[in-house]
Amino acid sequence: MKHAIIRNRGWLFLPSRAISTFLFLVYMCTQQCVVHSKVAGLDFGGEYFKVALVKPGKPFEIVTNVHSKRKTETMVAFDGEERLYGADADTIGVRRPHTGYAQIRRFLGSSLDQYGIVSLILEEYYPYSLSTNEKRGSIHIKHEDEKHYHAEEVVAMVFSHVRQITDVFAETDVKDYVITVPEYYTQAQRQAVLDAAELAGLRVLSLINENTAAALQLCIHTTLEPDTPKRVIFYNQGSTSLQVTIAELFSYVVPVGSSSNKTIIGFKVLSKAWNQHLGSSQIDLRLAEHFAREFNEKVLHNKQDVRSLPKVMAKLRAQAKKTKIVLSANEEIPVVMQSLLEDYDLRTTVTRTLLEELCKDLFDQALGPVHEALEKANLTRQDIHEVELIGGGVRVPKVQRLLKEFFNVPELGAHLNGDEAMALGAAFRAANLSNSFRVRPIQMTDTASYGIGATLADVNAEDGKDSSWTKHAPLFTTAHRLGARKAVSLTHTRDMFCTFRYDQSVALPEGVSVFIGRYSISGIEAFYEQHLEKYLGDPKVTLTFLLDSSGIVSIAKAEVSLEEEYQIEVEVPVKKETSTATEDAAEKPKDEADLTEKAEDAETVEKAEKVEEEKVEKVMETRKRTIRSALKVELVEERLGEKRKIGMSILPMSASQKIASVEMLREMDSADNKRKADLDAKNRLEAFVYSARDTLESDDEVIRQVTLPEQVTTVLAQLEAAEEWLYEDGDKAEASEYDAKRSDMKTKLDEILFRVSEKTDFPNAIEDAKRLALSMKAKLSDYAETRPWINEQEQSDARARVEELETYVEDAMAKQKEHPPHETPLFTSANVKKQMQQVKKLIDKLAKKQKPKPVKEANATESASKDGEQVESETEIKTESEMETEIKTESEMETEIKTENETEMETHSETESENESKTEENADGHEDL
């Protein structure tokens, strides 16, 4: 056989096609982990977050939350011990402002000295109780005078909700994320985002700047002419800030092989600028204050100032947000807020003109970052080809009008979904960074937001012993791309500190320290003393700095080295004087015509040199080698036993703090899950009580036919008792108690409902059984003529089984009729259907019995030739059973697992062989009997 498996001494030999199939199956099995991988992009906004999911073989999708919304409020609220998120948290935050925490992105990597935090409390009417963590210098959120949370812990709660809704939407666990951050985020803030994600169990592939993510999304869907760059300005006004980025999109063609080309697309960030306090929430605030003033004057007659009431201001902020959205499409809107304070209502009218007057100073600042970005990129407004609007604040008509007038364009760019572009761009970045996906390559070049330098100083200088040695080196400017490395080398003999700091303090957000972080670099002095006796000089210290894709600077590598000379014994060849004489003889000029003699002489010289070179002597040779040692780099958190901030304003979370936070969050998650399970069980019990009572109290005649009055009364009494228990002692019970009560009552109700269903199902099953018996009898009678190969015994057994069914049906009907209807039925529709199934199975078996094939017998024929000679020939014609036996014997040698094509080829081959055999037999003069 062509595809047989050949076994030889324990080895298994497969044909080439079988090997290919096997390797393909192995490949598909190994790819399962890739196929099922999923990543996501998270647009972590100040007011809302959006998540874009990447699944193999499908377009990017925006994740919808529990309310089927494509964006979710970046907020967490505490309702007692329960945590609420999204719209639920927003609702609680309006009713009880001190329990809901919005704008939590501002807390990360910040201190109470920063303007954004002061504004949040004093100017935006958020009643938060914040304090300073003395060890880290970061913000502590005080909740109900009992619990204190790190800012990273509060954000981690929201990130946990992000992961929960994403996993539900993806129907699997999604851990890998790329998270967007504002352009102006400092290293402390970026590190805080990473720490919060770690606490929530998210694996961050990278951070990405918001406008960079939008540029990436635009680059994917933009068709560019080769070598014709396009400069685009991204105007991003979100809830908390205004960010402007100028990017240049490009494409070029590179040859691939000798006959094809490949188009490369990409973009690079030229400049960026921002106003981190000019967000659309400032417009909401101006409207809310206007409402408050009108309410104070027209309703309260200035007897009270509602701006001192957090609950009222929360309501006014919510109304202001709705009003702003409506005024984006309308010139005027009436505003009515019933019972804003006690029984007093707010009734007023707001026009778009009034809104623009209230926010005039804000609109005057709207073009500031645009001018700054153009200046940094050394461009004019005429050099910009497109203006792309992203963020929720750009829907305000005044903002769009200002941009149209400045750039002198009739319309602004609308190529992106301003709400979702950043999430989709982050998702594409995640797919690019993940090993599980193969996506279109795009060259992306982002730059640092701040210039960063490093200051080196002796450890002793920190103690006042020696302050003479310090070195400062600029590392990365705002023109450096993210992902860049820079190495700094110097000679030094003592351990040192390396302090990162921002080079341009004027560009930093107000209240942010210029210090980024301080690291101790140890091992230099020990290395120097170890090799001091060798007199090798001062060691060279090499520090490699990395500005990673998340915008975080670090020491990627630190090592110390010395160069040492040493001697080694080597072998060198020794040549005899005869060799030189031979060379001289070979170099003497001869007659140019005697070419053959010259060639022979040269060959003789080479052989002589080779013989002489085989003799060597040993000499000492001086060489150099480099001795290297890795240095220890640690973040400085304490010095001389005194725990305090050293060289930086905000310390990141330590490993021990992260462990404690993760444990605390797990306990809170466990408590939330238990509360949810208890609530779900309570709701199931409550729904069952109402549904069961409606069923039993209905005017259903069948229920009265299959129950006694006391049976119904007993169940109704249990339902009433359960309802009272739910709203009294059982209000805070556990899920097991709710389920136990529901299970007991459900058992009794199910018995009644079963009798109700059997009231109609059993008679229907009886009728079906009777019809089946008649049908089967007719079939058996027909089989006697149409299927004579079914023997008499088989037909007799089948008839007997049909008669048994008829007897069973008659007996069941009689006994069930005498049985009380309010008790469990003796016979059920399921019993009857089982009997019917057995009969059908037996008849179907007879119907499938195949007609036996006729048996072929061997025969021999004689034929006489025309010249009188007779040739006797005898051919064996195998019976069908003999042929099947041979085929079966051969098939045992075939491959156990074949593809469909191989099987078809074998069948075709066997058919051709049989046809050839028959042709040969007929050619010999034999007849096929």
TrEMBL record:
A single GO cellular-component term on record: endoplasmic reticulum chaperone complex
Designated name of the protein: Protein heat shock protein putative
Top-rank taxon: Eukaryota
GO BP terms, alphabetized: endoplasmic reticulum unfolded protein response
Biased composition (Basic and acidic residues): 585-613, 864-929
Keyword annotations from UniProtKB, A to Z: ATP-binding, Chaperone, Endoplasmic reticulum, Membrane, Nucleotide-binding, Stress response, Transmembrane, Transmembrane helix
Organism listed in the record: Albugo laibachii Nc14
UniProt keyword Endoplasmic reticulum, yes or no: yes
Record CDD domains: ASKHA_NBD_HSP70_HYOU1
Region listing for Disordered, in residue ranges: 577-613, 843-929
TM helices/strands, residue ranges: 12-28
GO molecular function: ATP binding; ATP-dependent protein folding chaperone
